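Objective 1b: paired records.
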Amino acid sequence: MDKETEGVKDDYKDSLNFIEKIIEEDISNGCKEIITRFPPEPNGYLHIGHAKSICLNFGLALKYSGKCNLRFDDTNPVKEDTEYVDSIKEDVQWLGFNWAGEYYASDYFDQLYEWAEELIKKDKAYVDDQTQEEIRLSRGTVTEPGKESPFRNRTVEENLDLFRRMKNGEFNDGDKVLRAKIDMAHPNMLMRDPIMYRINHTEHHRTGNKWCIYPMYDYAHGESDSIEKVTHSICTLEFDVHRPLYNWFIDNLEIFPSRQYEFARLNLTYTVMSKRKLLQLVKENFVLGWDDPRMPTIIALRRRGYTPESIRLFVDKVGVAKRDNIIDLGLLEYCVREDLNKRVLRRMAVLDPIKLVITNYPEGKKEIINCVNNPEDSDSGTREVEFGRELYIERDDFMENPPKKYFKLSPGGEVRLRYAYIIKCQEVIKDEDGNILELHCTYDEQSHGGGSSDGRKVKGIIHWVNANTAKTAEVRLFDRLFSKENPDISDKEGGTFLDNLNSDSLKSVHAFIEPSLCDSEVGDKFQFERLGYFCKDRDSLPDKPIFNRTVTLKDTWAKLSAK
């Protein structure tokens, strides 16, 4: 095990949840090795909800010195693609995990077919000629039993012949299906003769045209777990009604007894998790793609500047529960602040500039100021920043008619420039329309380093950049994609989740930044002092750096939404 994996393992030493209680009881009863799996379908990009499942399955394997497999549920060739396989593997590794084995449900197609024939021979499966609609209507309701198919009592020999002919491609899509023979009056409607195989003449991304019949998820899943000898098959709560069917297939085939356990899925405020809705956002250009930093996909969170450590911390704080609940997105933002605060370098940037001239500072003088890289990390050292007569400060750091207890810059007022001097605003220069062009200030030459010429103190501290050496950059100010806590609910009659899109979720500004930021690499993260955490975007060019706002320094959303 490498050092990086050892570090991840440390995250999972002390927690104890209901699944761990089950595992520890199983170990005490003789279970010698814990084997879990993460089984995504490669039909899209993973999101933060999948991150919870990844952390849980791999985390349990790490905690109990077991194994966690990565298995792709590639039983539907219409929607699946190697693009998604590659992205899923990248996401799992980025989160800090390594799988024991890489498997595909398609690896088991031959075995699954043999087992299907075995069930037919046991008279526990049959070929049905009904259409999908006829099967749906015959299932009954939660209060009424279903009706048996007119083809349910075919002989074993006839079913074997038809199933083999299905496999050999003699029938068209939809002509026939293979169904398990269970109980059409079962209170769990999934047990009412579920479909095991359907005909689909579509090329598979791994098996090509070898197969024209494909197993359904409920048939393939438990058996795939059994083949891999998965001891604890951990799913989200919506699969609890599937568990009896999971067990039925394993028990009737008399194979390794994998068992399924369910936990609460992750639901976040101001977020949609549905793959269908996320795909709609992408296809209809409401976002810039799957990796748009406003999306909840892992690839988008990575681009926005989230770290794997922050996501693992978030998952740990959410915990493992038996009931679904909605988690405040603010918790995820808190976790990334906590992580970035400890690790990233500080830099100064001005996003909405107003020019400031220090009139009593010598013209042409160049002065180097030592600035702290990260006060939370004593090993991060300092950097040199050039100070000068002309600076840029944030427009929000000046107010012409301030209220009481205003500690930023105002006419006649004083503030300290970060790492530098105390300045006093003497004059406000405006154009003929009354717009502020620049501020004229004086500085206290004796105030560098925290002192002053007469021992006075000022409460306000503002940041700045040198107007003559600062570089320009595009800064993308991302915010929450939806304006409503539960975006799935629309206030409009017949409305959809799209009605709740936040029109201010992306603003792009041209900012002035410290020159050293131009030398950073894509993905490098910084705290722009007093503004928030930012990450260099992949769209950056050598002469045009672009930074994405990961999160503000404080949660301003509640205040803004309350107005």
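Objective 1b, second protein:
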Amino acid sequence: MAERIFVAVAWPYANYLLHAGQAAGAYLPADIFARYHRMCGNDVLMVSGSDCHGTPITVAADSEGITPQEVIDRYHPKILEAWERFGISFDLFTTTLTDNHYETTQDLFTRLLEKDLLYTGTQDQLYDPEARRFLPDRYVEGTCPLCGYKEARGDQCDQCGSQLDAIDLIEPRSKVSGATPEVRESEHFMLRLSAFNAQLREWVSAQPHWRRNVSNFTLGILEEGLKDRAITRDINWGVPLPVEGYEDKRIYVWFDAVIGYLSAAKEWARQSGDPEAWRLYWEDENTKAYYFIGKDNIVFHTLIWPAMLLGYGGLNLPHDVPANQYVNFSAGQKQSKSKGTATWLLDLLDAYDADVVRFYLTQIMPETSDSEFREEELIRANNEVLIATWGNLANRVLAMIRRNFDGVVPEPGTLGAESEALLATVREGFERAGAEYATCQFRGALREALAVAQAANKYLDERAPWRAVKEDREHAAETLYTALQAISALTALLHPILPFSTSKLHTTLGHEGTPESAGWMLTGVPAGRSLGEGGALYRKLDVPEPVAT
């Protein structure tokens, strides 16, 4: 039976260009997963959007002397361009500025307030005496009290991943003026996270399919005990509180942003013509929700968002949170816009075909540990693996059929043992790669697909149809026919990772529709079919000359 799959993808802040680390960490994995499930005939809804309320946006606006909206208007179109060029197949990519998102956020706030899961309390907060304003968490930097990292943010340390309170930072400094902030009291609405500790521990412990690092990190926090957390801030940019008397405060971004998964589903439903269709993805317990994020967002998706959902009631909890580690730029540095250590996605797409970038990022996808992006390794992966193992296989088989059989798939006759063995390997490839795709092991899925390509290359080399065609045309016909079936299978096996080139090849092979509509199976290429002209799937890249020292 077909499954219903909800794919929720981290919301990028609309204040910077996207980098390779983000692409490999959340967006490419989500797209690969969604494409695979669509090929399996499953009902998939993949959503995300630009987070327009994050304090990094207001920080950027303040530094430039412009409004947050002007920052968003600059970067949101660039994010959309990146998704289109990179092939990220969202069913909806929206923003947190829609009326629908505001309504959904305020509805959740109100429900939690009615259930006494929100309460007001005073909280120590840092205040900039020079700028004469309270400082939201990300307006403060300092030294992490747990690991000593000197550039920790007021809400989180990127070095050790710990959740922080800005007042706990050592030697804090204001990002507004550079001044040393003062501690002052401010009244805020607090979420009773502590009320969910036991329930969340039981739930997390019952998720054996979660990645070990995600499960262990989450259970570690629960062992320490969840603390209630403020969900409002003294700012004027964000979702207004649906409560009188708090007009000078806004709902804080970490509470607002995760609600975007729900509001986006509602927006998609309205656009689809069935405003209630979102309920199938949120209220049907048979739906599986997968949240694709980086490791710095684990706590929000395995603890805080599930607590909010439990508090609201009647909505599905995450089925899996396959959080990835970091892709580093050089010398172990995390990809970071603020530090200037990033490989920008649009720059990569200016230099290389999207499928080449997707292929390399899948190879180095940080599923279990941090990895490192190296442009010379991208070039090597293109030339020595993508082309040598897969591209040349497709090109030479198609070229031999065009040259020796007038571009018409030859009649194979009765297949011999070698040919049947290759087709058996192909069928096993769907099982093996499918198991990897389904469990979010995309590096493994790529390895399994390439193993099929390697088997096809070995079969071709051993049978040498370029020689046999001169002496035993029937032997050559059987070989090329069988190899072509393997190539057709590989367009499906590799499509989730390489959608552009496999779609092109799918058409060249004479198949109708798209690889996704053809399904997760070997779509045979019948004898007698005329093949399209096509062309090389990939181009060899020049290795840059070493810089003289």
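The chain has a mean pLDDT of 93. The longest strand covers residues 118-128.
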